[in-house]
Amino acid sequence: MKQVKTLLYITIGVGLTSIGLKGFLLPNSFLDGGITGIALLLDFGFNISVEYSILLLTIPFLVLAYVSISKTIAWKSIYSIALLSVMLSLEDFDMITDDKLLICIFGGIFVGLGIGITIRNGAVLDGTEILALWINQLIGVSIGNVIMVFNLFLFSFVAFYISVESAMYCMLVYIISSKVIDFVIKGFEEFIGVMVISSKTEEIKAHLYDQIGTGYTLYKNIEGYGKNGPQKDKQALQTIVNRIDLNKTHRIIQEIDPNAFIVDYDVNTVKGGIFRRFTIRLKQL
Question: Which of 34, 73, 108, 132 is paired with 96 by a 20 to 30 Å CA distance?
Fold first, then answer.
């Protein structure tokens, strides 16, 4: 049942991507980044159908994924890319708009939504993502940097052989789709870690529990060095809050202890959250 649900979400993601490509970008000769961008470029320059070129250009990357990364990712990606090729060959949209800005915005949104949903379910629609993951595992270069360099060459080619204006619009499509992908993958919630060193941690944790509904970790008997010299037997409180609650969290802390030392830091992944849900449920009773 879980696999069926995953394939259903991948199908939805592929459908949204195909709408963005066939409904907005293709009829107006706009490019996206990655292998999709190269396929669109081949269609504009040599009249090679996008559905075939995407499939053929991605085959080497699928082999790379199967051999070096993950067989599961490879098989899901084969399904998603083959389905995208089929959808592009079957769909036939009338031109929705000829406004270049609207094309960039809505084309980027649909493509970003589709790719984001597909990635969240363990598949990819672009071979550059597989290449970037492989290079990251091989030499440690970040995935984002690999994709950025690849697209830099692609957009430079567009600027040199087509026009600078076309390259600028292509970059806009890529930026919009990338931001939408990040939004879909990360979701609404973006968590921030907060470390508080204060002489009033007991009062602070009680107010955070009551007003924010978040859990906490308390470190006791810690040492440090600050403007007042060596500090011993201090307490530090660590908690994780949604970015929406960050300003409220700071306000609560500073109202209790204006001299509190506060450090915020990004949190990539939060798992569990049982205590956080428990405190919220208690407050709702």
Answer: 34
